[in-house]
Design goal:
382 residues; globular; Rossmann fold; 2 domains; seven-stranded parallel β-sheet; alpha/beta
Length: 382
């Protein structure tokens, strides 16, 4: 790519997409466009000398306009889970129409499920549907790209795992939990995290946009280090300067707990709660004048509550356990249990061979950079 190459980044307001935009600008690219669905989420990239293009993955016309004149597309946009595949199809069609030179699609190792089987260590393993909505939707989007590849779209699929770094939700969540004084480890934190530092992933994306031999390939991207979840938690505890009290629970205990829960009723309650508390549902309700007034009243009441009472209501509405007076933290959800009990180390041999990828930022340095941002953003206090 030369520095005048037209580049479109979808998901530009997100954690990874924002970093892609920053790195492109730092590398001297002068024709970068960020697709923005909601400009309220764009302050991080609005300071950059890039074009912000309003658009929606569900709106093919807006995508045609956004990709016109671009030669490279980095696709990180998500949208609603059920629309991931459709949005990817819309974008791929626009990319074909614009005759792009490279379409880099960011998928995930979760196409194998949250707890992948042993053979998923390499890209030779066949992805599978697992019933998890996120995993299955990302797999469906990846399959859309594969169809377009077969039709001649010069695409590359990258599959990162646990992406960490500044702005990472993982780090923010871990720090917030550590502040409470105790942390519940699953299997004593021995599960493998398969970290992917965000700048290492961006390096791989830039290589995928350049290397001719990458076209048509699906490639796993991680840091290539054997890092456990306990390593990750302890690294964040050191940032806070605290010595957390660890509790432990086995993944077998968690599996047993959820097997004993009422199946259909529990799933229905969870789904109903998700719908009723979703921003989309509230937006529809607020079109009714009297309901809008009631929601405003309820919000003002909520804002006036003590913090402990607010926390109790947040947990009730999110489906989590309410605050308890015991010493044992609440039961982890099944998704977290699956993610943190993985015993598989993904191979990056194909990334090294096809892309010439070599992770620049090792785990210790990644944590130092993450700490700098957490401190700057005041998540670690003074």
């Amino acid at each position: 790519m030369n520095q005048a190459t037209g580049i479109l980044v979808t998901g530009a307001t997100g954690f990874i997409g924002g970093r892609v935009c920053e790195r492109l600008v730092q590398s001297g690219f002068r024709n970068v466009r960020g697709l923005v669905h909601d400009f309220r989420h764009a302050p991080r990239i609005a300071r950059l000398p890039i074009q912000l293009r309003g658009g929606d993955l569900m709106n093919p016309k807006s995508l045609e306009e956004a990709v016109a004149g671009c030669k490279v597309v980095f696709h990180l946009g998500l949208g609603p889970d059920s629309g991931v595949a459709k949005g990817t199809r819309n974008l791929a069609e626009a990319a074909v129409g614009a005759a792009v030179d490279r379409f880099v699609h960011i998928s995930t190792t979760a196409v194998y499920g949250l707890k992948p089987p042993p053979d998923a260590a390499t890209e030779d393993a066949r992805p599978r549907r697992t019933g998890n909505e996120y995993c299955d939707c990302k797999l469906a989007a990846e399959q859309v790209v594969q169809v377009f590849m077969a039709r001649g779209l010069p695409a590359v699929i990258l599959r990162p795992c646990i992406v960490l770094g500044p702005y990472s939700r993982w780090s923010i969540g871990i720090v917030n939990q550590l502040r409470k004084g105790s942390y519940l480890l699953i299997d004593e934190g021995g599960g493998l995290c398969n970290t992917t530092y965000v700048d290492n992933l961006v390096d791989a994306m830039l290589l995928a946009a350049e290397k001719p031999e990458a076209v048509g390939q699906t490639i796993t991207i991680t840091d290539g280090e054997r890092v456990t979840w306990r390593d990750v938690i302890l690294a964040h505890a050191r940032m806070l300067g605290t010595e957390p009290r660890f509790e432990n629970i086995s993944s077998a205990e968690i599996d047993s707990y959820y097997r004993d829960q009422p199946g259909v009723v529990n799933a229905s309650m969870k789904a109903s709660r998700k719908v009723l508390t979703s921003p989309e549902f509230r937006k529809l309700l607020r079109q009714i004048s009297i309901v809008d007034k009631m929601l405003i009243w309820a919000w003002s009441k909520f804002e006036g509550m003590p913090e402990l009472e607010k926390d109790m209501w947040r947990k009730r509405l999110s489906g989590g356990a309410t605050a308890n007076s015991g010493k044992t933290p609440a039961m982890p959800d099944a998704d977290r249990a699956a993610i943190e009990s993985v015993g598989l180390l993904f191979s990056i041999e194909k990334a090294r061979r096809v892309l010439g990828y070599s992770p620049r930022i090792q785990f210790s340095q990644a944590m130092r950079r993450t700490e700098q941002w957490l401190r700057f953003a005041n998540f670690l206090g003074v």
